[in-house]
Amino acid sequence: MTVSEQPDTYDDGEQSSDLNRAIGKQVKVLRERGEFTQKELGDRLGYSEDLVSSIERGRRTPQREFLDAADELLSAGGLLKAAIEDVERAKAKARVRHPAWFRDYARLEADAVEINFYNNHDIPGLLQTERRARALYHMRKPLLDEDTIEQRVASRLGRQKILTRWPPPMVTAVIEEAVLRRPLGGWEVHKEQLEQVIKLGQLRSVELQVMPMDRTEHAGMGGPFVLLTPKGKPQVGYTEVQNNTRLATDVEEVRILAARYGSIRAQALTPRESMELMESMLGER
What we know:
Number of strands: 7
Largest sheet: 7 strands, mixed
Strand content: 5-15%
Shape: elongated
Structural class: alpha/beta
Helix content: 40-55%
Oligomer: single chain
Number of helices: 12
Radius of gyration: 21 Å
């Protein structure tokens, strides 16, 4: 089964853009009343000037922590805090909106009992931080509009809830060392991402391995892929290459991917060695 990526179409649901714009206008009015610049407000709240600007323009969904802190600092009298419930509800709806070409995989992933990743370009989406995911979508070519970026980020973060459900799926991942050293989004975003990967790697249901750059043999030269086992169903394979997605269900094809993944894991560092390497990376800058 092969599906080419088409212009995004999403499940029907209330768009959060109008809500974001309304809250953004409130933040701007309150900020100006308090005689703060965007940079000053960001510094006081612990956020960047760009983030404050994006929220005021309705291009970013404000997080609960931002609204809480801004309400207190700007003496909003609960105005911004009152919007938190609406924001959370809108975010929950946005999380179920996957592009049409991704829905088949997303449905299987949501019901998976085992997921195995081999990644040679970036961290698996299930392990990404919000800032890393947003940075990746911002650098996508052709360019994505801001609404699409926000929808995709929300959808990606929504998928991650399977890691904390009970029982969780068993998740393994082999990530190239080069991926873990490439600071996509800037060092602060990358550092946060490394910390998240290390934290998730300590879960009992997650095993992470690093493929070191000094290996002289590598079974994964054919590119990245996912092996996924839905509950009560046969294992399937999934690939994304140059805007084309493919869900492999043929038994022999899946068997080959599984054998290849076994070789990749054998060639990679052990989970303990991998954690030690990632922890050492945090102190390299």
